[in-house]
Design a protein that fits this description.
about 210 residues, single chain, Pnp Oxidase, Chain A
């Protein structure tokens, strides 16, 4: 899925280019950063996204500068990353992190077809919480008009993964300095009901299952 632009150049052994790895990392993250140039100024915007087969969907207000610009077919870059551990070496120089990351280069296009737009919004909602789309009120015509959805084909992409221990210099192994990994978890916590929630409404089972994972 990569060409010269997306090929990993720094520590190339950590690069991955197969769809399974790239799709898996995209599916395991919740926020991406979209980078683009607008009127000669670089922007990097964090936003929700979802993958559907070999497409990435973004959504937001119809007047969103980012989405309006992407619909023009400009070059853009999308990235995601998750951190699994702090890597604490004996030397400050070799401190690092264990991570999974993906970079996607491409161009976006607004979805105008109503059925496809609804499908994309369902995919985005279901990525947040599987089972939520059928439970929640779905978008009305006013909300649909106020929302722009952009589709990006995953054609040029790469993943980069560090999943290893400390890499110190041999002469530093005798130092009286602790070294090792500090794992990081990004677990969902217990749901907090809205203070205006109608009496008698319980937390849905699909949310309980999501939190229990």
């Amino acid at each position: 899925m990569a060409n010269e632009k997306s090929k990993v150049k720094r520590v190339p052994k950590r690069g991955r280019y197969d769809k399974e790895t790239i799709h898996g990392i995209l599916d395991n993250n919740r926020i991406c950063h979209v980078a683009f140039i607008h009127q000669g100024v670089p922007f990097s915007i964090p936003t929700i996204y979802a993958r559907d087969e070999n497409k990435i969907y973004l959504h937001g207000a119809s007047v969103s500068r980012m989405l309006v610009e992407l619909d023009k077919g400009i070059d853009m870059c999308l990235s995601v990353a998750s951190v699994e551990a702090l890597v604490l070496a004996r030397s400050a120089f070799h401190h690092s992190m264990n991570y999974h990351s993906v970079v996607v280069f491409g161009k976006g296009k607004a979805i105008d077809d109503a059925a496809e737009k609804i499908h994309a919004l369902k995919v985005i909602t279901e990525k947040l919480v599987p089972g939520r789309w059928e439970d929640a009120r779905q978008p009305n015509p006013i909300e649909m008009k106020a929302t722009k959805v952009i589709a990006i084909e995953i054609e040029d992409a790469s993943a980069k993964i560090r999943n290893e221990g400390v890499g110190d210099e041999k002469e530093d192994y005798d130092l009286d300095v602790w070294a090792g990994l500090v794992p990081i978890n990004n677990d969902l916590q217990a749901p907090i009901s809205d203070d205006k929630l109608k009496e008698g409404i319980e937390i849905p089972d699909y949310i309980k299952k999501l939190v229990e994972k």
